Amino acid sequence: MKKEERKIFSSRDIHLAATLVTLRFDLIGVDYQIEGDNARPVGYFSFEDTPEIRQADQHYWRGQLSVEPRTFVTNWRGLKAQVNGTYKNPHTNFGPK
Fold first, then answer.
1. Residue 59: how many CB atoms within 10 A of its CB?
2. Any residues with CB less than 8 A from the CB of 42 and at least 6 apart, and which?
3. DSSP 8-state symbol, 47
4. For residue 23, how many other CB atoms are within 10 A of its CB?
């Protein structure tokens, strides 16, 4: 029997990711990629791809979502800290050499 592969919804938009977390979608993980002239890590936020998350994504881009502001800001800060923390972590390959 073949194991079913989980489909992933991924975005580099930290505001969308914070909105999805605020709406109680489970964050599967954060992947990092170095981008730009300053070689800063950019986070790619991964969630399980479901019809509900696709609908939330569409509503986000249409401006049709409302979330609790303090929870959103807390989630946004947490995601930003994860991305920025890798730049300063000595156990990653990011950061100045």
1. 14
2. 12, 32, 33, 34, 35, 36, 83
3. E
4. 19
Q: Residue 49 has what DSSP assignment?
A: -
Residue with tokens 């979608």: 25
CA distance 26 to 96: 32
Determine contact, residues 91/25, Cβ cutoff 8 Å.
Answer: no
CA distance 27 to 52: 14
* pTM score of the predicted model: 0.81
Determine phi and psi for 40, rounding to 5 degrees.
-100, 145
- Which pLDDT band, with edges at 50, 70 and 90, does 1 fall under? low
Segment 22-81, tens digit of pLDDT: 999 999 988 888 777 877 778 899 999 999 999 999 999 999 999 999 999 999 999 998
Residue 30 corresponds to which amino acid?
A: V
